[in-house]
Amino acid sequence: MERVEAVRLDAAAGIGYTGAMISVKTRTHIGPDGTLTLEVSTPLRETDVEVMVVLQPLVASEPGPESLGWPPGFFDRTFGSLRDDPLGRLPQGEYELREAIE
User: Fold this and answer.
1) What is the pLDDT of residues 57-89, one digit of tens each?
2) For 77, phi and psi rounded to 5 degrees?
3) Which among 29, 25, 30, 23 has a CA at the least distance from the CA of 6?
4) 3-class SS letters over 25-94
5) In terms of CB atoms within 10 Å, which end of the chain has fewer, N or C?
6) How far apart are CA 65 and CA 73, in angstroms?
7) Nearest-5° angle of CA 50, CA 55, CA 60?
């Protein structure tokens, strides 16, 4: 959780107060009925709070090579680099025959 000092002025009531705002970021799934249910543990007890919910749909995608540990741009720089000098498979020789395992 990220704690941010916030100052809010309530002009209608003529009050100003300072409090610690707690920002919570999570991922969840909305079911087929379209209902979002959130359970969030906080250090606050017995107090009124204002809650703002922002829904941001996630785009399903394949993980990129960078997320798998490859340097950025690695495949763009190396793809086709052996086009003029292709690798070939050399003869593998004869392999010995072994007894079958039963």
Assistant:
1) 887 767 788 888 899 889 998 888 888 888 888
2) -80, -30
3) 23
4) CCCCCCCCCCCCCCCCCCCCCCCCCCCCCCCCCCCCCCCCHHHHCCCCCHHHHHCCCCCCCCCCCCCCCC
5) C
6) 9
7) 155
